[in-house]
């Protein structure tokens, strides 16, 4: 009995994620369909090579307490019930992404810790040495869905230099098994 309890405790300690580190759990196929639709719509026709951070993040510019249903309803008047609640719940912890994007442009996922080293060591100059021809860095949030799974909201940020970057919330709807952008709302620019 003691061996069983000890083994269970060891397994739990090994598999329990450290707070603030990306969870190794895979995201759903729907989430990747949304990621692919947003990235393709916003970048595919403009660039040849994309660098995507391998861990999700949220909008760093806003105080989360101000991001209530009304905050998002002002951006997206057609926002379905439950999308904001699901978005916030999914974004409590970062999630590690895998390369399940369906894109028609070359792309690479880069470890968040590796990116920290790059920017600490040489900033954007070092980034572009490592990823020549890229359009900068894309960071995605988790996707929030409504209960019917036919509306979704995501945050996407793109950085391309010290004073070159944008952050958007994007609303999508699914019709005929395809996610389509309904509206994007820029929340910051540098």
How does this structure look, described?
With 190 residues, the chain is an alpha/beta fold. It has one domain (2-189). Helix content is 33%, strand content 27%. Strands 1, 2, 3, 4, 5, 6 and 7 form a seven-stranded mixed β-sheet that branches. Strand 5 (151-161) and strand 6 (164-175) form a beta hairpin. Helix 5 crosses helix 6 (123-130). The longest helix is centred in the N-terminal third of the chain and has 16 residues, at 29-44.
Number of helices: 6
Spatial separation of the terminal alpha carbons = 60 Å
Report the biggest beta sheet as strand number plus sense, adding barrel if it closes. Answer: 7 strands, mixed
Number of strands: 7
Order of helices and strands: HHEHHEHHEEEEE
Strand content: 25-35%
Uncertain ranges: 1-26
Q: Sum up the overall morphology in one term.
A: globular
Tally of individual domains:
1
The secondary-structure class comes to alpha/beta
Overall pLDDT: 84
**Fraction of residues in helices?**
25-40%
Radius of gyration: 18 Å
Brief summary of the model shown:
33% of the residues lie in helices and 27% in strands. It has 190 residues and is an alpha/beta fold. Strands 1, 2, 3, 4, 5, 6 and 7 form a 7-stranded mixed sheet that branches.
Question: Which helices and strands, and how do they pair?
Answer:
Elements: H1 2-15, H2 29-44, E1 49-53, H3 69-75, H4 83-90, E2 106-110, H5 112-121, H6 123-130, E3 137-140, E4 144-145, E5 151-161, E6 164-175, E7 178-189
Parallel strand pairs: 1-2, 1-3
Antiparallel strand pairs: 3-5, 4-5, 5-6, 6-7
Helix pairs in contact: 5-6
């Amino acid at each position: 009995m003691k061996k069983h309890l000890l083994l269970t405790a060891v397994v739990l300690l090994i598999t329990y994620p450290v707070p603030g580190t990306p969870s190794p759990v895979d995201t759903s196929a729907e989430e990747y369909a949304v990621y692919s639709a947003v990235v393709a719509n916003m970048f595919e026709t403009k660039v040849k090579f994309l660098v995507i951070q391998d861990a999700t993040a949220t909008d760093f510019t806003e105080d989360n307490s101000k991001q209530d249903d009304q905050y998002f309803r002002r951006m997206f008047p057609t926002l379905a019930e439950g999308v904001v609640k699901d978005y916030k719940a999914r974004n409590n912890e970062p999630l590690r992404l895998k390369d399940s994007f369906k894109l028609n442009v070359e792309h690479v996922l880069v470890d968040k810790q590796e990116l920290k080293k790059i920017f600490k060591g040489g900033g954007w100059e070092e980034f572009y040495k490592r990823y020549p021809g890229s359009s900068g860095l894309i960071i995605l949030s988790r996707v929030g869905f409504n209960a019917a799974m036919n509306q979704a909201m995501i945050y996407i940020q793109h950085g391309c230099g010290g004073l070159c970057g944008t952050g958007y919330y994007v609303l999508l709807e699914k019709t005929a098994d395809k996610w389509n952008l309904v509206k994007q709302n820029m929340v910051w620019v540098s």
